[in-house]
Amino acid sequence: MPIPFRSWPARWQLTLTSAALSTLEQYPWPGNVRELEHAIYRAAIVACATQNHTELELLPTHFNLNVELMAERINDGPYEPVLATDLATMTQQFQRDVIQKTLEDCDRNWAATARKLSLDSGNLHRLAKRLGIK
């Protein structure tokens, strides 16, 4: 897939492999569209250094993306909110889901869960009790 972009040097003809395109589609892109633009530009620089010709083929290895974010998105999928009548109920459900998932990831260790969620352990215990987790 050729990438038209006016700021590329005129000597570059960029092409994304299907694997690279799949990698870009799976990445959650926590920033804005400029993050994607910069990632492609950096990948082009890396490809230029390794391929040494004007028709550059961008491979997944040319992108320096946070693999942990991709793994979370692939494993968990997008968060599907529970439809409720009010925001408070939906917020409590979201908190319950996050705490339970983090607790499972930490092998039911409450102190590790509190650290991972950047919460005081006492506050986590009170919140879990209020949410009906404990």
Automatic annotation (TrEMBL):
Superkingdom of origin: Bacteria
Domain Sigma-54 factor interaction: 1-45
Pfam name, any one: AAA_lid_14
Record keywords: ATP-binding, Nucleotide-binding
Record carries keyword Nucleotide-binding: yes
Signal peptide residues on this chain, from the entry's feature table: none
The keyword Cytoplasm is assigned to this record: no
Gene3D superfamilies: 1.10.8.60, Homeodomain-like
PANTHER family reported in the protein's UniProt record: ANAEROBIC NITRIC OXIDE REDUCTASE TRANSCRIPTION REGULATOR NORR, TRANSCRIPTIONAL REGULATORY PROTEIN
Protein name from the UniProt record: Sigma-54 factor interaction domain-containing protein
